[in-house]
């Protein structure tokens, strides 16, 4: 008994839910229930709204504008957006195989058979028709391929989010470096004024016979050393402005004037809504990207396994062919055909089995990559939390040192002017003041960098 086309179609429908190959399950990473650094304190809940525009928590309008420009105008972001469009097109292509294919053909053909000694003459024929084919995805190879395309689409979407997050963090970091360089220039110039005043005092005292040439030379040397720091700081500030312009997809000099005004390193509240580790995994785009990659690799195993089984197709065609155009539409000129067919690769030298093993190994690699991504993500959050906390402690100590060193400069200068101490004490106090103020300025940058790193490690708001 032969199978009718309707029976084959029914069989395809009955087996529509059957797909060969393994189903994907998110790997179990056994996440901790809390962050180790905050075991003795309650971690605030991670409200996505608090992280969606984390850079606004630094309360710097110029930084807000730069970041929001970069996440749309940056060339890396645009490339990631183009990759997302590619993935959408690939997914649409993978879904197209579930629809029947329809084609049309036709022609006007003239044949000349003269000159062979047997028959001669000319003949003409007109032909045209429609053909259709519909593959029955009985073993689910096409469904697994679409599943893989869906996962690739999720990968591309997460990749775009990861690029935006990285770009926002990079712009914020570079902007803070710019402000830090400008602040350190201000520190150097302020201390240069203090040191120049002391140098003038030593020259006056030498003229009056109360100071030696050594005091004058030491004062001049300190002034020159401080002056020497300013050009390199100005170079760093200008290069940071260039880098920001390029991050926004502009020529390097476009934003130099806009960013030339000096400003302090932006600060934000140290209270960050960290939540719990599982919250972070749902937000971090690189984790979602790694999971999607593992999902796609798992689905590809099913695509490879389906090659072991036959592929069934329903075919049909309607053709019209006649020697005269007037007879082309007549029933006698019509040829129709309809019926199932199958194609089965019975022997390929082990190529199908080798491809299955390849896809399984790629799946294993992607699962391991996912687990590593999760561990690195956890480490980045823990590292950023401890760095931010310890830098706050360091900053408070440096602020106390600056206050003490300023007082030491005042006292040593007063005592030297009154002839009650040596100039070396003034030099030491001024060197210490310059160093502590520079350290405090760099600590302002470190605090901002640590907070930016923490927001990035938590996955931002995408």
Can you put this structure into words, describing what you see?
This protein is an alpha+beta fold and 462 residues long. It has one domain: Outer membrane efflux proteins (OEP). It contains ten helices and four strands. It has helices at residues 5-14, 48-52, 61-73, 75-96, 141-207, 213-247, 277-283, 285-306, 351-417, 423-457; strands at 101-112, 122-136, 311-322, 334-343. It has a four-stranded antiparallel sheet. Helix 9 (351-417) packs antiparallel against helix 10. The longest helix has 67 residues, at 141-207. It is elongated, with a radius of gyration of 37 Å. The two termini are 60 Å apart. Residues 1-10 have low confidence and may be disordered.
Characterize this entry briefly.
With 462 residues, this protein is an alpha+beta fold. It has helices at 5-14, 48-52, 61-73, 75-96, 141-207, 213-247, 277-283, 285-306, 351-417, 423-457, and strands spanning 101-112, 122-136, 311-322, 334-343. The chain has a single domain (20-97, 139-309, 351-457), classed as Outer membrane efflux proteins (OEP), CATH 1.20.1600.10.
């Amino acid at each position: 008994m032969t199978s009718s086309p309707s029976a084959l179609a029914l069989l395809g429908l009955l087996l529509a839910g059957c797909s060969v190959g393994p189903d994907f399950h998110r790997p179990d990473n056994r996440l901790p229930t809390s962050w180790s650094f905050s075991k003795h304190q309650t971690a605030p809940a991670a409200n996505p709204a608090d992280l969606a525009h984390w850079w606004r928590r630094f309360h710097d309008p110029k930084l807000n504008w730069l970041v929001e420009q970069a996440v749309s105008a940056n060339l890396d972001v645009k490339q990631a957006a183009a990759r997302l469009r590619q993935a959408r097109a690939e997914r649409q292509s993978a879904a197209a195989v579930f629809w029947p294919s329809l084609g049309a053909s036709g022609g006007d053909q003239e044949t000349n058979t003269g000159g062979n000694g047997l028959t001669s003459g000319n003949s003409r024929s007109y032909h045209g028709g429609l053909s259709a084919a519909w593959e029955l995805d009985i073993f689910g190879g096409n469904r697994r391929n679409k599943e893989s395309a869906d996962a690739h689409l999720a990968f591309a979407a997460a990749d775009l989010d990861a690029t935006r997050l990285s770009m926002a963090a990079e712009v914020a970091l570079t902007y803070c470096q710019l402000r830090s360089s400008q602040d350190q220039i201000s520190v150097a110039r302020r201390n240069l004024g203090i040191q120049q005043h002391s140098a003038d005092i030593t020259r006056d005292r030498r003229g009056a016979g109360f100071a030696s040439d050594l005091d004058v030379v030491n004062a001049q040397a300190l002034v020159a050393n401080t002056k020497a720091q300013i050009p390199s700081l100005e170079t760093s500030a200008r290069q940071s402005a260039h880098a920001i312009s390029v991050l926004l997809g502009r020529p390097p000099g476009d934003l130099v004037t806009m960013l030339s005004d000096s400003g302090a390193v932006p600060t934000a509240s140290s209270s960050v809504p960290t939540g719990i580790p599982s919250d972070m995994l749902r937000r971090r785009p690189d984790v979602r990207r790694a999971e999607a990659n593992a999902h796609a690799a798992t689905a590809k195993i099913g695509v490879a396994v389906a090659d072991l089984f036959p592929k069934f197709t329903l075919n049909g065609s309607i053709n019209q062919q006649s020697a005269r155009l007037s007879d082309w539409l007549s029933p006698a000129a019509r040829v129709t055909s309809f019926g199932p067919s199958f194609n089965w690769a019975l022997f390929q030298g082990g190529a199908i089995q080798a491809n299955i093993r390849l896809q399984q190994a790629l799946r294993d690699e992607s699962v391991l990559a996912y687990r590593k991504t999760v561990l690195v993500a956890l480490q980045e959050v823990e590292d950023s939390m401890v760095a931010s906390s310890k830098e706050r402690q360091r900053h408070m100590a440096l602020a106390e040192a600056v206050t003490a060193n300023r007082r030491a400069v005042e006292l040593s200068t007063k005592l030297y002017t009154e002839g009650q101490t040596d100039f070396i004490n003034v030099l030491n106090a001024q060197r210490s003041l310059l160093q502590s103020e520079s350290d405090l300025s760099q600590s302002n940058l470190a605090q901002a960098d640590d907070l930016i790193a923490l927001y990035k490690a938590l996955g931002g708001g995408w």
